[in-house]
From TrEMBL:
InterPro entries: AB_hydrolase_fold (IPR029058), CocE/Ser_esterase (IPR005674), Galactose-bd-like_sf (IPR008979), Xaa-Pro-like_dom (IPR000383), Xaa-Pro_dipept_C (IPR013736). This is Xaa-Pro dipeptidyl-peptidase C-terminal domain-containing protein. SMART domains: PepX_C (SM00939). Signal peptide: none annotated. Keywords: Hydrolase, Membrane, Transmembrane, Transmembrane helix. The keyword Transmembrane helix applies. The lineage of its organism: Eukaryota, Sar, Alveolata, Dinophyceae, Suessiales. It comes from the Eukaryota. The chain crosses the membrane at residues 35-56. Pfam families: Peptidase_S15, PepX_C.
């Protein structure tokens, strides 16, 4: 990417003081809003004290009830292996010292200010300096720095007296504060900037992850290390830079790292979106809940509408931390009104190649946001992730089994990993906010992922005069390594130098009437089951009543005699017999029936809108992440499908128009119609599940739940009607579930 003019410091003025500068701690009461907030909190405190005895009484009664229920329960004795499905065996288990969950380490110094980009837009920047970077006489000692481009505010300013309880009165980052604290403890400077159109920065976001955003990141690095800067390198920088981000911020980090800036020495990308269509429109169905929630949060943050986030938010928060005067902050926030409306664009597209207008007046498609195969002129015709691999930068990818980005992480590592690449896959949802509790026997604890980032960057960007006491075992080899969490295993953390791990092969289960069988000898000569109507709200907690009421189909194996580990993406191949509906959705859930016969345990899921069933040859990165099949004669049915999702490939279900006259016929005609529908045209549809690593317990059952909708999360199918297709499961028309199974047992 060409950068003809470098970034510059803002000329000193009331609106924008020069460059980054030390911040002054805010006075206790600095605005009328503080007075109102203090009065409201005082009233709330009085009410809370009055209700405290009743609250404590209720909690005591509830605790006694739960304890008695546990003693009297008929649950079996916990499997000692399952008791280890917690963070007790996490290799980075040391607790960080000095800082903490709500404050930076003692002695951290914060500088704040604006850096003007080459197009004149002001970017708000915080520089957090560890004690080792500060001299006694006010000078600085150069240290490596970690650059973070923040989409969701680089820091939040709190009201008094709440701010006295957080980070010693300084602004705090509620999303990445603990990560930054770990980096500061290791002696890194942390440079955190609001992306244009967000937080305290000016400008407009014309589209997500725009080329201009990437150029901002590169120009900020130039500012730090002194490229095209009359004043040279910043006094606190030793010229080494790492890029770091989570979720959206990870996309910003990877796009900048791919440009091979000479100062960049490593990149850490957590929960990276690499194929936005297949992640947010899985199976061609819009994940409306995620997109709507994401867009609502962005809009409220960009326009500083704290009350829209929560009615009580203005009582404890002021907003994004200012980089200079509040007058300048207000001016920058007012510019955000022109930000691109992502939700409107998402609602207007029906295929991956549908064009949408962006804020710059140009058009784009979802394919332009893909990181594996979308060539960029600024990268000499390479796509982002191949360019990153060619740069030979040490790369740490982090994702979770309960996150849609896990597929991107697995595929990137499988196809592109070079020396000093590491992949961590844990039982986390998006952003690593939650450790997912898969079974009752597991503990619900958090993992110190920041510790892994800390160790990775210390190894690849050592500070002058600072040496690690020992090289962490997981970083000792230059070969790429993946460390993944097998839910239910003991020890749960496993590692491999490749993905998928060795000895993982796909084995098929055949669908039969309410059953999953390991052999097709159990199939009926003729058999099919109609998909339920898309009229009921599908919930994730499945009980027998959900199937009994016709809201979903349930297929189960017989009892598993031994443990069985599934590692990777399962595939569901369905033979469908047509009905009268033009289209239908398939939501498939892989589950476990525990040995005690209790509620089904959620493991992973996949989805497909049947009109998008057209496939094309999978790209190399998807092939690399797909294990081989154990049955070579049927291997093509178990390969992970790659649907084109192009508008020209949309294909309605093969329904016969000649049947429409029978809609209002007599009972005899209705019976005839059902017979003809059973004999309708068949088609094949295949869908893949999000990858997972899970150990089925001995005595449990493998379960497959198939539902017609997930109204709580996904956009409904406008063409789905009262006559969905039939799922065939006979000797002549076979439907199969392919599971990637580790042939040799894990070290359990």
């Amino acid at each position: 990417m060409s950068r003809a003019r470098g970034p510059s410091l803002i000329a000193g003025s009331d609106e924008a003081p020069e460059g980054v500068h030390p911040t002054n701690k805010a006075s206790r009461i600095s605005s009328p809003g503080d007075v109102v907030a203090l009065a409201a909190l005082a009233c709330g405190g009085v009410v809370g004290l009055a209700l405290l005895p009743a609250i404590l009484g209720v909690r005591c009664v509830r605790g006694l009830y739960q304890a008695g229920k546990k003693i009297c329960s008929k649950d079996p004795v916990l499997d000692p292996d399952m008791a280890q499905d917690c963070d007790g065996i996490w290799p980075f288990s040391e607790k960080p010292g000095g800082g903490g969950a709500q404050q930076f380490p003692e002695g951290t110094k914060r500088l704040a200010g604006y850096v003007k980009m080459s197009d004149g837009v002001r970017i708000a920047v915080d520089v957090l300096l560890p004690p080792c970077a500060q001299g006694a006489d006010g000078t600085f000692h150069p240290v490596p720095c970690v650059v973070h481009m923040a989409r969701y505010w680089r820091a939040w300013e709190m009201r008094w007296p709440i701010r006295e309880l957080l980070n010693r009165g300084e602004p705090w980052d509620f999303l990445l504060g603990p990560w930054k604290s770990a980096l500061l403890e290791s002696g890194f400077a942390v440079v955190s900037a609001d992306v244009r159109g967000a937080g305290a920065s000016g400008g407009v976001q014309s589209v997500v992850w725009s080329p201009r955003e990437t150029q901002d990141t590169l120009e900020l690095i130039d500012f730090i290390v002194g490229v095209n800067q009359p004043a040279g390198r910043q006094p606190w920088s030793d010229g080494q830079v790492a890029l770091f981000g989570v979720s959206y911020d990870a996309g910003a980090a990877v796009r900048a790292a791919a440009h091979k800036h000479p100062a960049v020495k490593a990149v850490v990308a957590s929960f990276l979106f690499g194929d936005i269509w297949r992640e947010l429109f899985p199976g061609g169905i819009m994940n409306r809940w995620f997109l709507q929630s994401w867009c609502n949060v962005n809009s409220r943050l960009d326009n500083a509408r704290l009350a829209a986030i929560h009615p009580f938010s203005p009582l404890i928060m002021k907003g994004a931390a200012p980089a200079s005067s509040r007058k300048q902050l207000s001016r920058c926030v007012s510019e955000h009104r022109g930000n691109w409306d992502l939700m409107s664009a998402a609602g207007s597209i029906k295929a991956i190649d549908d064009p949408v207008a962006i804020g710059s007046g140009e058009t784009m498609t979802c394919q332009n946001l893909e990181l594996f195969a979308n060539p960029l002129p600024s990268l000499d015709g390479k796509a982002v992730l191949p360019a990153l691999a060619a740069s030979q930068l040490p790369t740490l990818l982090i994702s979770g089994w309960a996150c849609v980005t896990s597929g991107t992480a697995c595929a990137a590592f499988s196809a592109l990993a070079g020396q000093h690449w590491r992949l961590l896959l844990g039982p986390w949802n998006h952003g690593g906010v939650q450790h997912v509790r898969y079974c009752r026997e597991t503990k619900l604890l958090k993992f110190p992922k920041a510790k892994a980032v800390q160790e990775f960057l210390l190894y690849h960007m050592p500070r002058q005069g600072f040496a690690q006491s020992s090289v962490p075992a997981w970083l000792a080899s230059p070969k790429p390594e993946v460390h993944f969490y097998v839910c239910g295993a003991s020890p749960a953390w496993q590692h491999s130098t490749e993905w998928p791990p060795k000895n993982v092969v796909k084995k098929q289960l055949w669908l039969s009437t309410s059953q999953l069988t390991w052999t097709k000898d159990d199939l009926e000569h003729e058999g099919s089951t109609q998909l339920p109507k898309a009229t009921d709200l599908v919930r994730y907690k499945w009980k027998a009543s959900a199937v009994a009421k016709g809201r979903a189909l349930l297929f189960e194996t017989s009892v598993c005699p031994t443990t069985l580990a599934v590692i990777g993406s399962a595939v569901l191949t369905l033979r469908l017999r047509s009905s009268k509906d033009q289209d239908a959705d398939i939501f498939a859930y892989l589950r476990e029936r525990p040995p005690d016969g209790g509620d089904l345990v959620y493991i992973t899921e996949g989805a497909l809108r049947l009109s998008y069933r057209r496939e094309e040859e999978a790209p190399d990165h998807e092939k690399a992440a797909d294990p081989h099949s154990s049955d070579s004669s049927m291997a093509s049915f178990g390969v992970v499908p790659h649907h084109s999702y192009r508008r020209q490939d949309i294909q309605m279900l093969p329904a016969e128009d000649s049947w429409t006259w029978e809609r209002n016929c007599s009972a005899w005609c209705a019976h005839l119609f059902e017979s003809r529908m059973q004999a309708g045209e068949t088609t094949t549809a295949r869908l893949k599940f999000f990858p997972v690593a899970y150990r089925f317990r001995a005595g449990s059952k493998i379960a497959l739940v198939i539902a017609p909708d997930d109204a709580a999360h996904y956009a409904p199918n406008p063409l789905a009607g009262p006559h969905p297709p039939f799922i065939c499961h006979s000797t002549s028309e076979q439907s199969m579930l392919w599971l990637p199974i580790k042939e040799q047992q894990l070290s359990l």
